[in-house]
Amino acid sequence: MNRRLISLGSAAFALVAVMAASRFTPAFEDPPLPSRTIGCDRACLDGFIDRYLEALAVGDWSGLPVTATVKFTEDGQRLNLGDGLWNTATGKGTYKFYMEDVEAGEVGSFGTMREAGEPIILSLRLRIEDHKVSEIETIVVRNVEDAQNLEKRGHPDPLFMQAIPGGERASRPDLVKTANMYFSGMQLNDGKGNYPFTDDCDRVENGAEATNNHTASTENVIAEQSNSVETSSRQRSDLSYSAAWGCKQQFQSGLLHFVTRIRDRRFVVVDPERGVALAFCFFDHAAGKTRTFQLPDGRTVTSGPTTPWTWEIAEVFRVEHGEIRRIEAVYHRCPYGMGSGWSNWPESLSTQPRFPSSLGR
Amino acid sequence: MPNRFAAITRVSLSVLWALAAMCACVKVEAARERPGALEDSCDYSCLTGFVDQYLKALVAHDLSQIAVTDHLKFTENTIRLKLGDGLWGTISGMGTYKLYFADPHEGQAGWEGTIRENGTPAILLLRLKVAGNKISEVETLVHRNAESAQALEKLGSPNPVWLQPLEPSEQTSRKEMVRDANLYFEGILHSSGDSVPFDPNCNRILDGYQDTNNPTAKGWFDNGSFRPDSMGIRENMNTRIWTYIQSIDPRRYLVVDEKMGIVFGVFMFNHPGTVKWADVPGVGKVPMPAITQRPSSVEMGEFFKIQKGTIRQIEGVSIALPYRSLTGWEVSGR
Q1: Closest residue to A337, CB basis, from B79, B273, B294
Q2: Spatial contact of A129 and A123, defined as CB atoms under 8 Å apart
Q3: Residue B59: is it exposed, middle or buried by C-beta count within 10 angstroms (0-12/13-18/19+)?
Q4: Do A307 and B322 touch (CB under 8 A)?
């Protein structure tokens, strides 16, 4: 959240209903997956990503096995397959991170590509049905520096690929429940919630270390402080958000309050074997009344973005023993309130998590 | 000038393009021409009064100050929001530039002006639809760029042509007004300024910036002595620099202000990012700027002064969007 914080500022939402929703703990029942034969194991799913990226790099999707009704979105917009990045991609990059949901037949990836010769980040989700691609969802981060940062990392954190011992695996609903607490804890963050992070939790955002990064400068995200509090240099330091902090410290600071709503939380890949959950969602920054809020120590501050806008995000979590240990995100700015192209309007505004089984097909 | 459209008369082009617009699935949605439609329910000053009421309520952050229908629809920068969200939470005051237009025929009104958002200047383009003395549709484009807003304010007031009602001899029918405005977009797509009925004094101001007949401007396409922003609008359009625009679709003509001769609409410019250079007549290949070499769309709220069947002036406000964004006003989504 560090870079997101730094580059934005913050926001707020005045709707009581939304505030209530941020504290709402959904009932995580175990929704049955649709009865269908996936017949595509982890390697098979990864193979579809490989084939897709190979085809994309040369701008030719004719050899890609797709269903007759395949749906394709880029940055929340439905396009004809072959449009968008298919017209402009010029090659593959060096970073790749695959996430598989064998049970649901879904596979996600974060990786780098070249567009007009320049590095970009691509977040990709494919749904596989009868050994064909039926859904393609992409977020294209057209930021050279971010893509280069991701490539400098070389590879994703190996923990994401490590199997959870058989007896310690969380159920699909429990995985989503834990990962969703990240979103609920950040939305209108007040520093007082239950934040299930391991002590060594780390987060990477568009290739940059957003936690435990001791080379990062402390960023003061507080724009103004209310008149009720004298602003000394020490207090200003207290009001600074830092990428040097750990995951829990950042959430306990209460400084993330400007993220006013995290909506359309679609957990598209859930992998109990590796303790991985990948979600696509949106972070809204309303920039209204909730710019002014109270920190856990009682101080009132005014902080955050001064105009409404939204992050479109794909974020993956590694969960162990009910706690989040690793997070990696790919995201970019989009129009305030934008939809994903995969949800209707009420779903798009909802802060409730949705599983693959509950995602409308 | 070697231009495949230059030799064709304007009349024949009008017919061709009208057909092309229908056949090529370009969604040209024009305000209808039906006698006396809503004329008696809310007249010109009534409609601009609704604009004033809306702006007053907006700045006060007070929805209770406006009457809205049960099924009111509100969009900001193409995104459907709940009324009260978006700019409603952040506006902090009005600016100094403002321009109204209204269409009693359709019960629609528009406004372009400057505002302050948490103290920072921005441009707001507003469209209201009024039905039964209540607001039923609110469409807004908020151009959040202080420099653009300040540039508009530096003009002092809108170009006088916008504020001057048409003489009866200068008027054309609603259908002709929309047709003439639409020729502008066809001219862009065909790099054919010669086929657009421009008044010789026509200029264009987009986001507060005059990009025609502007000798001091520094434009995207400047290349040595080739400086298209310093050209007249007809010559500028003939340069083929706009070939990176693949389509302008949909084209939603929303307000036809017969009194002032203003046609206002919202238009989606789509850029697939595939055009690498412009083959400029007499100049040669001019590289496209990097920003055009990636997929993107721009929604443009644009208005035209139509006088005696010519385009006298153009002004607009743009919003950068993901490629092939919807407008928020489709009857059915994709």
Answers
A1: B79
A2: no
A3: middle
A4: no
pLDDT at A28 over 90: no
Q: In the numeric block, which tokens belong to residue A273?
A: 């074997």
Residues A289/B89, Cβ–Cβ less than 8 Å = yes
Q: Render pLDDT for B149-179 as a digit per residue (tens, 0 to 9).
A: 999 999 999 999 999 999 999 999 999 999 9
User: Are the beta carbons of A357 and A34 closer than 8 angstroms?
Assistant: yes
Instruction: Please give the model's pTM, rounded to 2 decimal places.
Output: 0.88
Q: Could you give the 3-state DSSP secondary structure of residue A44?
A: helix
CB B301 within 8 A of CB B141: yes
Q: Are the C-beta atoms of B263 and B197 separated by less than 8 Å?
A: no
DSSP SS3 for B246: coil
pLDDT in tens, B93-125: 999 999 999 999 999 999 999 999 999 999 999
Q: What is the DSSP letter of A253?
A: T
Q: Does B294 contact A142 at a Cβ distance shorter than 8 Å?
A: yes
Q: Is the pLDDT of residue A9 over 50?
A: no
Contacts of A123 in chain B (CB under 8 A): none
State the alpha helices, DSSP H only, in chain A.
2-8, 16-22, 42-58, 85-88, 144-153, 172-186, 233-238, 247-252, 345-349
Mutate to test the interface with A, among B90, B145, B293 (most CBs of A within 10 A): B90
Q: Do A77 and B324 touch (CB under 8 A)?
A: yes
A139-175 residue pLDDT tens = 999 999 999 999 999 999 999 999 999 999 999 999 9
Angle at A206 between CA A106 and CA A80, to 5 degrees: 50
- How many whole angstroms separate alpha carbon B89 and alpha carbon B63? 11
Contact of A243 with A210, CB cutoff 8 Å: yes
Return the structure tokens found at B283.
């100049």
**Is residue A76 within 8 Å of A67, Cβ to Cβ?**
no
Cβ(B59)–Cβ(B118) below 8 Å:
no
Separation in Å, CA B248 to CA A157, A290, B13, B51, B320: 44, 39, 18, 28, 14
Question: How far apart are alpha carbons B127 and B310 in whole angstroms?
Answer: 24
Query: With 0-12 CB in 10 A as exposed, 13-18 as middle and 19+ as buried, what is B314?
Result: buried
Buried b (16+ CB within 10 A) or exposed e, A329-341: bbbbbbbbbbbbb
Number of H helices, E strands in chain B: 6, 15
Helix axes B174-189, B10-23, angle to 10 degrees: 80
Concatenated DSSP letters of A56-103: HHHT--TTS-EEEEEEEEETTEEE-TTSTHHHHEEEEEEEEEEEEETT
**How close A83 gets to chain B, by Cα (Å)?**
8
ipTM of the complex: 0.87
Instruction: Decide which of B149 and A242 is more confident.
Output: B149
Smallest Cβ–Cβ distance between A336 and the set B76, B117, B295 belongs to B76
Cβ neighbours of B287 in A, within 8 Å: none
Task: Report which secondary-structure segment, H or E, holds B303.
Answer: strand B296-307
Residue A243: closest CA among A232, A234, A233, A256: A256
Does the CA dihedral A1-A112-A338-B62 come out positive or negative?
Answer: positive
Paired sense of beta strands A118-129 and A132-141, if any: antiparallel
Residue of A nearest to B321 (CA): A335
d(CA B301, CA A111): 36
In angstroms, the CA A199 to CA A176 distance is 20
Contact yes or no for B118 and A74 at CB 8 A: no
- Beta strand A323-334 with A197-205 is parallel
In chain A, residues with a C-beta closer than 8 Å to the C-beta of B324 are: 74, 77-79, 83-84
